[in-house]
């Protein structure tokens, strides 16, 4: 009987403890639910301000390079080729000796012409003296008029012979000079078509081809719709031209627009244009495909943002801007051309807006952020925008 009472008392004590624990938990839960939730932590994001600059405006085209001068070197005299003085593909200077034809026959012809001239000059001296003597003696009647006339005729004939001798000397001197094939201008040789010992005929044996490389032409075909704008800025002065080769993003060569044709192609609707490009290192060769960029004017007050800040969705291009209270605002933007790491924004932002350039996957419209200055992007040269997006340039033609 006593044992039963003790067991009942222990069970009651356990129930009481359980009720106290449950009451404590319920009270704690109600207190926790009644407390306000802590504010979300601000996400640290790098930002950079929208900048306003003067940027160049370009007209972009595809073109090819052409040599200003190309000549085929040919012989003007017959003879055996004695020497090739420069190797194939050499850069040569104006007047440099390239080929030497055997000059001995032409040197002998020159010597013969000079000797004949000396002979005829001696005969002319005698004819002059004889004519003078007969003229004096004819006054006293010691020489007939016929003899005087004969001496005068002989003097004139010898004078003409001497003039012919001088012409023969000049011809022989020219032929001797033609035995030397010299570069008519500075340029680069191609493959030689003759070797030493070959017989060069006067029929016009081709020896080699020489092209001028500096400067060089950049030829392209703007559409006639661009023609008024090109002419407008050309009237104000020479239009600078940049040339980009291959997959480059900056101009490697520079020059000026020097030619616009006087006719628009009926079938293509384009006009032939040409720029003269400096090529001092002779690395640009005729026949290359290039991109030609006309710097027609400069546009002031252009807004630019880093390209890394641009996102896109089905509605278009957008970026994030830090708004009031350090909360993110989503702005849809209209973009222009690329300039290195920057891109032109035609609509959607204002000067001084802080644009988010990092942690873009962790934020959205209304996100609380802690803005920190981002490292400045590399600034492009004013005349060298990136060539990856031609949309904001004024023209693009094949």
Kindly describe this structure.
By secondary structure, the chain is α+β, with helices and mostly antiparallel strands. It has three domains: 199 residues, Efflux pump adaptor protein, beta barrel domain (Elongation Factor Tu (Ef-tu), domain 3, Beta Barrel), CATH 2.40.30.170; 51 residues, no CATH class; 76 residues, Helix Hairpins (Orthogonal Bundle), CATH 1.10.287. The protein is 28% helix and 35% strand. It contains four helices and 23 strands. Helix 2 packs antiparallel against helix 3. It starts with a helix and ends with a strand. The C terminus is likely disordered.
Properties at a glance:
four-stranded antiparallel β-sheet, 398 residues, 4 helices, 35% strand, disordered C terminus, Elongation Factor Tu (Ef-tu), domain 3, 3 domains, 28% helix, alpha+beta, Helix Hairpins, 23 strands, single chain, six-stranded antiparallel β-barrel
Topology readout:
Elements (H helix, E strand, L loop, with lengths): L1 H33 L8 E7 L1 E16 L3 E5 L4 E6 L6 E2 L4 E5 L2 H37 L4 H34 L1 E3 L4 E3 L9 E2 L5 E6 L4 E5 L6 H8 L5 E6 L7 E12 L6 E7 L11 E18 L4 E3 L2 E7 L5 E5 L1 E6 L2 E6 L6 E3 L12 E5 L22 E2 L1
Parallel strand pairs: 1-22, 2-23
Antiparallel strand pairs: 1-21, 2-11, 2-15, 3-10, 4-6, 4-9, 5-8, 6-7, 8-10, 11-14, 12-13, 12-15, 13-14, 15-20, 16-17, 17-18, 19-20
Helix pairs in contact: 2-3
Arithmetic mean pLDDT = 85
CATH topology of the largest domain: Elongation Factor Tu (Ef-tu), domain 3
Taken from the alpha-carbon principal axes, the silhouette is rod-shaped
The protein's oligomeric status is single chain
Number of helices: 4
Number of domains: 3
CATH class of the largest domain: Mainly Beta
Helical proportion, percent range: 25-40%
Find the structural class using helix and strand composition.
alpha+beta
What CATH architecture of the largest domain would you give? Beta Barrel
């Amino acid at each position: 009987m006593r044992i039963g009472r003790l067991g009942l008392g222990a069970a009651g004590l356990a129930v009481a403890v359980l009720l106290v624990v449950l009451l404590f938990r319920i009270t704690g839960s109600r207190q926790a639910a009644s407390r306000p939730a802590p504010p979300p932590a601000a996400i640290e994001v790098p930002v950079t301000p929208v900048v306003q600059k003067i940027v160049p405006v370009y007209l972009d085209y595809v073109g090819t390079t052409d040599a200003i001068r190309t000549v085929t070197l040919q012989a003007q005299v017959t003879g055996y080729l004695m020497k090739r003085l420069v190797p194939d593909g050499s850069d040569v200077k104006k007047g440099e000796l390239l080929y030497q034809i055997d000059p001995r026959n032409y040197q002998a012809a020159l010597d013969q012409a000079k000797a004949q001239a000396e002979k005829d000059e001696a005969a002319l001296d005698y004819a002059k003296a004889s004519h003078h003597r007969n003229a004096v003696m004819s006054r006293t009647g010691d020489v007939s008029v016929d003899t005087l006339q004969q001496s005068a005729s002989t003097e004139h004939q010898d004078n003409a012979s001497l003039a012919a001798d001088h012409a023969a000397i000049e011809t022989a001197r020219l032929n001797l000079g033609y035995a030397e094939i010299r570069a008519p201008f500075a340029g680069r040789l191609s493959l030689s078509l003759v070797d030493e010992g070959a017989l060069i005929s006067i029929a016009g044996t081709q020896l080699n081809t020489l092209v001028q490389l500096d400067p060089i032409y950049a030829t392209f075909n703007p559409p006639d719709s661009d023609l008024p704008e090109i002419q407008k800025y050309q009237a104000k002065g020479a239009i600078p031209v940049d040339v980009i080769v291959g997959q480059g993003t900056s101009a490697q060569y520079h020059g000026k627009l020097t030619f616009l044709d006087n006719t628009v192609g009926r079938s293509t609707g384009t006009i032939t244009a040409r720029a003269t490009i400096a090529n001092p290192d002779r690395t640009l060769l005729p026949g290359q495909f290039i991109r030609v960029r006309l710097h027609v004017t400069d546009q002031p007050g252009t807004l630019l943002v880093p390209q890394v800040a641009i996102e896109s969705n089905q509605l278009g291009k957008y970026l994030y801007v830090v708004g009031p209270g350090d909360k993110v605002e989503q702005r849809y933007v209209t973009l222009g051309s690329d300039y290195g790491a920057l891109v032109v924004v035609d609509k959607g932002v204002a000067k001084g807006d802080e644009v988010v350039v990092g942690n873009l996957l962790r934020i959205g419209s209304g996100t609380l952020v802690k803005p920190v200055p981002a490292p400045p992007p590399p600034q492009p040269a004013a005349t060298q925008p990136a060539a990856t997006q031609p949309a904001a340039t004024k023209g693009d033609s094949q």
